[in-house]
From TrEMBL:
Its main location: membrane. It comes from Nocardioides aquiterrae. The chain crosses the membrane at residues 90-112. InterPro entries: DnaJ_domain, J_dom_sf. This is J domain-containing protein. Keywords: Membrane, Transmembrane, Transmembrane helix.
Amino acid sequence: MTSPTWYDVLDVSPDASADEIRAAWRAAIADLDPTDRRFAALNQAAEVLLDPERRAAYDAELAPPAPEPGPAAPAVVAPAAGRSRGVIPAWLLIALAAAVLIVAGVATYVYATQPSDRAVEDATSAAQSAAERAVVPILSYDAKHLDESRAAAEQYLTGSYRKEYDQLFDGIIEQNAPSTGTVLKAELVRSSIVRATEDRVQVFALVNQARTNNKQKTPQIYKNWVTITMEKVDGDWLVAGMDT
């Protein structure tokens, strides 16, 4: 029995469009807790199938192998004049030995420079804690204290993502919040890890946002699933991207 493919996991056909795959993924995880084992599998399936290059490579893996050609007739090579049959020249032995040493050196270097499981585990824990601290101020603001709200969020952002955040803050929040008196307070419910390396971690978080304004005094609660991309910058874990 063959193992299920990522298409089977999301219950879509191999020729499904990106929009169909994204819709299937969102519907599948909508009612799942991040600690559910299916949650990680669904996320991994979506990551592969929504990336054109990774999907093409994956489809190539699924394709049936091409039939192997039949055995070719052995080539007959006449021994060179003045050289005994089966004798390998000394220069070729030296070249082969050098090649073996180079390959062994490269393999040793690659192995030595790969991060250990312990290093990735420590990095993941630190990044998740940093994401949990950052998500609340980033998704909160108070119309009466916008400068403080911005400063509270920006300390957790990388330089590139701060530019995106400032554009959103200047273009939408500062233009509308003062007149509406909007106050948005975020509360982290739980988080889980999507994937991780030693210097880049993606955290999936459930966040409740309570909103009030001049007309709506009773808080309205909005539930948001947020994917937070964390990057290690000069020893600190900072938010490099956020998708809701």
